[in-house]
Amino acid sequence: MSIRENSQSEATQSGSDRPRRVEGRSRLVVVGITVVAAVAWWAVLSQVAGIELQARQGTVMRINGVSVFVAATAMAFAGWGLLAILERRTLNARKVWTVVAMIACVTSLGSPLSSGIGVGAKLGLASLHLVVGVAVILGLRRTTLGVTERCV
Fold this sequence. Notes:
It is a single chain. It is elongated and about 50 Å long. The chain is 71% helix and 5% strand. Helix 2 (27-48) packs antiparallel against helix 3 (65-89). It has helices at residues 3-14, 27-48, 65-89, 93-108, 110-115, 119-141, 147-150; strands at residues 54-57, 59-62. It has 152 residues and is mainly alpha-helical. It has a two-stranded antiparallel ribbon with strand order 1-2.
């Protein structure tokens, strides 16, 4: 018996080879799709529709493509991190994570709706929050196994 076969049989006996995620569904791809969708939507809003995306956070902030890129990337990785922690701590990670992520997405709408300057900016910024939230929630949710799949 080779070393590789021996380590595989030990892993099978210890149960450590159980899948934690759905194969072929990369979380890094979800992050990339989220960022591309957010920046593309920002371009439609600001460049095509001509909406001036500004918010008042102490001073007036102009929302540009770089800030959308950074915020979308940070939120996608934050969602990934929370999902990874929950997968290690609970069997019901997908359901718990989905509820927490949906609450976070809805709660995040308060900022653009209260700090956006003008109706167009408020709606545009809120739609950006929704684009990121939907991409992260639907994308990352597909990468994890459900309770019945994890307990097999």
